[in-house]
Amino acid sequence: MSTVLRTVNRMLIGVVGLVLVLLGGSVLAVGLGAPPPSWWIHHGPHDVLLTAAERTRWRDHGWWWPTVLAVLAVLVLLALWWLVAVFRRRRLAEVLVDTGDGEGALLRGRALEGVLGSEAGNLDGVQHAQVLLTGRRSAPAARVRLLLEPHVDPGTVLDHLTAEALTHARNSAGLAALPAEVRLRAARHRAERVS
Question: Would strands 105-108 and 94-97 be described as parallel, antiparallel, or unpaired?
């Protein structure tokens, strides 16, 4: 998760939590018999949240329902965006490389992704390769997506990917293991005419 998204996430959770605690605590306190503050919109524990006049006040206006539906749709879309952003798998920013001196070095995750993707893309029969590193910096994992040419055998490409690209990446970063999830997809091609 990016730093900006993490900051927005924390601020949004904090603001929503603060509003819910203040409103919920105020409603609970007034409902239990505490005297309502002067700014409070209700006057006692038996006062209803919305009167019948407040609920039906705007019902006859033509703009009311489209506005309500548009606001609710925007809120649902924002909530879905937030949910997807929070639960999306994080991209690994850096990988801890064992240098043998006990301290180690940090390798940028995007650099390792680029090298691994370039080597996987150069394999015979691969049109396009996309690599994403996930996991922890001391124990990374790779998610590899390969777009294969129509004539290629997927098993052969997978063997070459494992024996060459993934092995080179694991050895160059000094990792004990580099587990990978590989997704293969065949490229679309036009039908050949037979005459």
Answer: antiparallel
Which residues, at least 6 apart from 193, have a Cβ–Cβ distance to it below 8 Å?
Answer: none
How far apart CA 148 and CA 121 sit, in angstroms, is: 10
From residue 58, alpha-carbon distances to 52, 62, 63, 72 in Å are 11, 9, 9, 16
The CA-CA-CA angle for residues 155, 159, 160, to 5°, reads 120
Question: Distance from CA of residue 160 to its chain's centroid?
Answer: 31
CA–CA dist 109, 134 (Å, integer): 9
Residue whose pair of structure tokens reads 């809120």 in the numeric block: 75
What are the residues facing 146 on neighbouring strands? 129, 184
The structure tokens listed for 194 are: 């037979």
pLDDT in tens, 51-109: 788 778 877 888 888 898 899 999 999 888 877 877 765 677 788 887 777 777 888 88
Cα separation, 133 vs 143, in Å, equals 6
Decide: helix, strand or coil at residue 120: helix
Instruction: Render pLDDT for 121-151 as a digit per residue (tens, 0 to 9).
Output: 998 889 899 998 888 878 888 899 999 988 8
pTM > 0.85: yes or no: no
- Separation of alpha carbons 165 and 162, rounded Å: 6
CA distance 68 to 53: 18
